[in-house]
Design goal:
It is a single chain. The protein is of the alpha+beta class and about 160 residues long. The chain has a 7-stranded antiparallel sheet with strand order 1-7-6-5-4-3-2. The longest helix is centred in the C-terminal third of the chain and has 23 residues.
Length: about 160
C-alpha cells in the first residue's frame, strides 16, 4: 500500500484589518447599500442580490464591467463572503475565481473589519492587484462611515 503525501493547494492571500468607529449595523449598511458603496468605491457602481446565492456585479466609472460573482455567505451584520472574478483585464480574468470575505466584530466603540481575499494559485496577479486597491477602498470606507466624507476622489475610468 503506497501513501501519497497530503498536498496543500498553494494560495495567494491579501488580509487587511481595520477598526472603524461605528456599529456593526451601520458598517453593514455601508458595505451593502449601493448608494453608500458608490461614495467610497472610487466611483465604481455595484449591483447585487444581497442574499446567499445572489449575484453581484461591479462596474468601472466609465460603465464597463469590472467584476462579477456570487454571494457565498450573507450573515448580517457579521459576515459577507463572495466569489469574485475580475472581468476588466484579460490577464487577471484568466486566473479565474477568488474569494473575498469580510468579518465584522464589535470591539468597544468600534467594529473590527477583517478582509480576506484569497485565490487558489500561487503568485496571483489578481491578488497582487487587489492588494493595491483594497487599502484605498477601505480607507475611504473608514473615513466615510466615521465622517461622511472620503479621503480619495473617484476615478474617471
Amino acid at each position: 500500500m503506497s501513501m501519497t503525501p497530503n498536498r496543500v493547494t498553494p494560495i495567494s492571500r491579501f488580509v487587511y484589518v481595520t477598526y472603524i468607529g461605528s456599529t456593526s449595523e451601520q458598517l453593514w449598511a455601508a458595505l451593502t447599500t449601493p448608494e453608500f458603496m458608490f461614495r467610497y468605491w472610487l466611483g465604481f457602481r455595484t449591483e447585487a442580490e444581497w442574499m446567499a446565492g445572489g449575484a453581484w456585479k461591479r462596474y468601472f466609472p466609465d460603465g464597463r464591467l469590472a467584476d462579477t460573482g456570487d454571494i457565498i455567505e450573507f450573515e448580517p451584520p457579521k459576515l459577507l463572503s463572495f466569489r469574485w472574478r475580475h472581468e476588466g483585464r484579460p490577464e487577471l480574468a484568466v486566473e479565474g475565481w477568488s474569494v473575498c470575505s469580510m468579518d465584522l466584530e464589535p470591539t468597544g466603540h468600534a467594529v473590527k473589519l477583517t478582509l480576506n481575499h484569497t485565490m487558489d494559485r500561487e503568485h496571483s496577479k489578481l491578488i497582487e492587484a487587489v492588494s493595491l486597491g483594497w487599502p484605498q477602498i477601505l480607507s475611504n470606507l473608514k473615513s466615510f462611515v466615521e465622517t461622511g466624507g472620503t479621503v480619495l476622489s473617484p476615478r474617471t475610468s
